[in-house]
């Protein structure tokens, strides 16, 4: 093939340009650690990674939801445990008061203790979270669930402010999987008043207080004590249900964590550059580039003119 | 005879000088002096030579290779225009993976993917505490970021389209100038050759103009006996001899430029930068723009359908969350910007109810019929992948086309380029021949002097 001035220089520049492009690509891969950075690099992988990235961030949102629900469940459990302890105390008072050996003064003392416990119970039932939401009000989160009527400094009635239609708010912990960590104060599955089991803690405590004040020990024995037992059993059921919820949240958290690791591994596998290969290829390209420049310099600096005198 | 030989060697030396001077001129074709033995004299002892005659100067131009270089230049021009436009669009799309050192994970921190994730993530967070003002603010900010990104990408793609229309307009102007130039050169070549001369320099210039023209449009040329070249562009005759028979013009329809002929005829542009610009504009860029508009439209419709049934913290309802209809004008209801409490999260009116916000969050996983039964993020990922495939295909084609063009250029340079070593060798050859011819004249002169001196003695 006949070699001319322009063909040699054109070819030389073209080859050097190709080697420079290769070096740029390989340098980019070695500095970022990624073999794919733009849609044009590998469209199929890019589409896949964007989709996986969406799944990954959605999974992170589910993990945040789980953490929030776990916090709610833990707070509820703490309050319910306190309530259960409180009801046990009330039941114990009822048992002691109904054994027929107490004077009216002692019964009055018991009534005072029950009054104090009613106040504490109402306070516990009206617990708010760090954002000011009433934890047992469900969707009516700004409504204080129980209000008291006081006569001469003494609570004489406790009424529930939750209206019909108040429900437990559910949150997603996985796609199409919803769960609630809330407990409702009142309703078919209520904590304080439960239309299914017949629990009605505040009214039962108020009845006990009234019977203690009037010395009606037979009513305490026959009515108040069983009713309080029902209330305590109802709270224990709710604590048990809360435990089940926390277990479910813990399992969901483990699952989300595993999914997060899996997605990260997948994305990394699809986009990470093989550093050993990349660096070896970069070294080879650099060697070829240096060789091209050196040989080009040697050839281009020589012509027949060097030998004509 | 000696004088004629000196003249021929001088002419050959001048030509070598011309070749050396144009050694780096890519449009120049190597020229050679064609010589032949001068007509001999019949003598009694037989034919007696009378020296050498210069017959012509021949250009080493190869018409076939010239046509192939022009054709490949047209293909390269088309692909280069497409690559440039699509890379601009890719930059505006702003989907770039970067290495997240904290998680050793590739992620796109910018672009619509991240913004979609941010919005739906913030909706999930709000669903756990729907009356929380800061969570509401986060949702509104995420939505504003998403809509601004939609607006920016859409605006960027419109800029690309506008630039392509400008390129088409400039291309048409350049084509018409080149056609005039070719017709003018045809006329000059015809005159030069008609008077028995050569027009190698003009032919070089015409070839360069044709190759420049091929960068804009697909063309065919046909050489005529009178030295002119007829040029057809996109199947339509544009130059015949020294006459421009037709020119290109642009037509505007719905803000888009199309290219037609000033006079009657059918124009089919298949390569060249004008065809490349139109292919990029009407192909991948329009498809991407359309996909974004569809996606934005669905986002607006689906979210508003859910949101309008909600109630805000003040008991109001019925407002829209998103405004606009497509990627260019999607926005967040201004009423929400300064009043997060106006976000209609509740389906019952109770502040702790998350019915609406949860339904909005769940739209992330909802396959929509108008998005080919894909979720919004799936549809977008596919649109990005499809766009990337278009650009990747253009990149690969351009790499191949550039290699072919380089190969053809090398072949043509091999056939018609100048080799300085050859020219220097020729120069020495002509110099020696010139010296020898001069020596001949000197010898004859001495012989004649000897003869004259003999008679006078």
Please supply descriptive tags for the structure shown above:
heterodimer, A: 309 residues, mainly alpha, f41 fragment of flagellin, N-terminal domain, 3-stranded mixed β-sheet, two-stranded antiparallel ribbon, 6 helices, 7 strands, 8% strand, B: 457 residues, alpha+beta, 2 domains, two-stranded antiparallel sheet, 14 strands, rod-shaped
In CATH, the topology of the domain at 52-265 in chain A is named f41 fragment of flagellin, N-terminal domain
Q: Considering residues with a beta carbon less than 8 A from a beta carbon on another chain, report the largest interface and each chain's count.
A: A-B, 70 and 74 residues
Please count the helical segments of chain A: 6
**Helix and strand element order of chain A:** HHHEEEEEEEHHH
What is the CA-based Rg of chain B, rounded?
A: 37 Å
Shape of chain B: rod-shaped
Task: Walk me through the structure.
The complex is a heterodimer of chains A (309) and B (457). Chain A is built from six helices and seven strands. By secondary structure, chain A is mainly alpha-helical. Chain A has a three-stranded mixed beta sheet with strand order 5-6-7. In chain A, strands 1-2 form a two-stranded antiparallel sheet. A two-stranded antiparallel ribbon of chain A has the order 3-4. Chain A is rod-shaped, with a radius of gyration of 38 Å. The two termini of chain A are 28 Å apart. Chain B is an alpha+beta fold and 457 residues long. Chain B folds into two domains: 2-60 and 419-456, no CATH class; 67-406, no CATH class. Chain B has ten helices and 14 strands. In chain B, the strands form six sheets. Chain B has a four-stranded antiparallel beta sheet with strand order 7-8-9-10. In chain B, strand 2 and strand 3 form a beta hairpin. In chain B, helix 2 (63-93) runs antiparallel to helix 4 (133-194) and helix 4 (133-194) runs antiparallel to helix 6 (273-307). Chain B is rod-shaped, with a radius of gyration of 37 Å. At the A-B interface, helix 1, helix 2 and helix 5 of A face helix 2, strand 6, helix 3, helix 8 and helix 9 of B.
